[in-house]
What does this fold into?
Amino acid sequence: MNTKEEITIKVPSNIALAYRNATEAEREQIELKLAAIMQLQFKTPRKDAIARLRNTMDGVSKEAQTKGLTPEILELILNDDE
It folds into this structure.
């Protein structure tokens, strides 16, 4: 279940007036559109961060392989109890 919360945002006066004068159905449509825009806006930085992390991990992996780290050596290192 997706609950809703009220927030306050600042908009130009003419936009505020138009919103107040809109029908309930129009306001609901505007709220849905704003929610979709905001959701997309907040997800994009997360996706970018994940992409940067993956690129960094790929780079580190390639560098380790270039320097001779093999899956077998990595497994020995990870399984070392000391």
Residues 24-66 form the longest helix (43 residues).
